[in-house]
Please model this.
Amino acid sequence: MSNAGLLVVCGDVERREDFVRTLSAAGWESVLSASGMTEAAGLMRSQPCACVIVDSDLADIPGPKALRILREICPQARVIFTTPQNSRELEAQVRALNPFYYYISSADRAELVAAVQDAIGAPRPLRARPRPRVLVVDDDPSYQTTVRAVLEGAGYEVSSAYSEREGLEIARRERPDAILLDIIMESATDGFLFCHEARHDPVLKHTPIVGVSAIEKRLGLGHRPVEDSDLFPVDAYLRKPLVREELLSELHRFVPGPCDEREERAEAARSPAPSSGGR
Model:
């Protein structure tokens, strides 16, 4: 199995993006792309490629000429030549240059995937990415239970802290990807103190903090505490009671959840592709 470098060189934007999307959906983690041979040569100098897919339509030179250049730049690379329309003259010209595979791109994309697998092997299974972790700092056990259910349902790992001090200790130890922070806990200023200390801590100062509180209602404030960035320097603020969609939407701005990544991959795999060629 392989995740060797893949490069798609095609002057047609739509077709190039379709090739990249198809190969990414098939499991190759990093697929480079270029519109022409000049750009491709620069990429290949910085990152060796085991397989190069070259289209007949390039931004700078004809595809067959690019095949000759590729042989000089990277003789070990397997080259798959693609063209949207075949002709006897083009096929004879290209096959004389001995590409690894000759693919007519109006065919099923499964043929392209199979050709790449034949050239460099099937992609290695993607290693599971650790789920992003959110620390919830709030002294209300029922609130903690509710928020944990929402976040875990969206694919996040959740840690809980029930006081300012416990929250800072856990944050420094676990380094969460984001923090949901209440204001009123043991005192009416705990959230402010937590935020002030976190913003001056080299470990935590860049961690996104979403303030979540009902302080306006409980203390009769006429303004939101987030309006004073010196007092409460959070990245976002939500009022209690929380609305699930608002919480996830706000959190997504800073830390996309695993469910979002799975949906993106699934959407890429579902994307329609034009539907032969061969060696």
